[in-house]
Amino acid sequence: xxxxxxxxSPGGLVVVQxxxxxxxxxxxxxPLSLLMLEDxxxxxxxxxxxxxxxxxxxxxxxxxxxxxxxxxxxAVVVRYNRRKSRYERQGVLVExxxxxxxxxxxxxxxxxxxxxxxxxxxxxxAEDERFAAAFAAEIRRLLPGCPEERARDIAAxxxxxxxxxxxxxxxxxxxxxxxxxxxxxxxxxxxxTPYDELLMSGVPRYExxxxxxxxxxxxLRGWEVVADAG
Length: 230
Prior knowledge:
Layout: E1 13-17, E2 36-38, E3 41-43, E4 53-57, H1 61-70, E5 75-81, E6 86-95, H2 96-142, H3 148-158, H4 170-173, H5 177-192, H6 195-200, H7 205-222
Parallel strand pairs: 1-5
Antiparallel strand pairs: 2-3, 4-6, 5-6
């Protein structure tokens, strides 16, 4: 059984979405989709001087908050949940002009956020480019025989944002020798050896690495450095 909503909006107006057909005790209009309870009897919004308000469903917190800020008159809309034995908010009633102003404010904020995201994306792209260039330069310093284009490709792959690869690790960001060489070794495994084919044929990872270790070491030696290929 529905009970009067009296505690959902302290100091404010509460409008009910009835579960059963109700008629206004004043004008006898019905069934009512929205009503207010006055002295325990249902009255339509026109009879309670709220008929000019528009309904804003719940869901957009910022729009709801701003609509109520802009609206001189507003009401909380609730519906009784029988299973939970309580009234639950469904939205608000606000002045139409207030809703329009609130929507404009939210759109302005959305545009500002879009521009900020675009600026942040450009800044991150520039940072990533600088870091990839520094990573490639460190590869060339440690392995002067490594072709410049190859060094750039390795650096770009290892340092891709969000990849979780060695270039994004703390050691990679610090351009430590171990991290840089690890990135090179990984690239050589996949590009210059049959490592991927061995994995696809079912060879265990450590066994596949053992089989191609000599090839990796040879490539690195050719680039004027010998590293542990394991």
